[in-house]
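Exercise 3.2. Students should predict the tertiary structure of the chain below and write it as structure tokens, then compare their answer with the key that follows.

Predict this chain's 3D structure.
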Amino acid sequence: MPDYSDDNQPAASSPDAAGFPNPNDAPPQGTRADEEPLGSLFDDAYALYEDGRTYVEAEVAFQKSRATYAAHESRSGIVFAMAALAFLHLALLGLVVGMIIALEPYLGAFGAMGATVGVLIIAGVLFALLARGRFKRITRAFESEQT
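Answer key:
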């Protein structure tokens, strides 16, 4: 059977029936390693650089998505915390009004209002002093680190 290829070169080795290359075929002559001995090393170094660059880009994208997620969830958490504080505030207002109404028969209207306001002022001053003490401890902790 005649060869119908255009360039009259011998046909490339064909795989056997199982699809494996013919073991009797010679390996291709002249590889890049034969032409340029350090070419493979430079190619490996460049591939390592590209892989590192791809890794950094992927890590930056991942951290951006984590930050976006955290910001969204934090914003939602702050909204819910503010709603909880608003309802707590309303409950405390109801407690104060209830205290005034409950004390009114015993102390009169102005006496009940004065007693309730006085207790609230004392509680507010007590919590303010506790908060000031905590902030002073923080200040002392940072002052001792600097010296």
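Discussion points: The chain has a mean pLDDT of 82. Residues 39-146 form the longest helix (108 residues).
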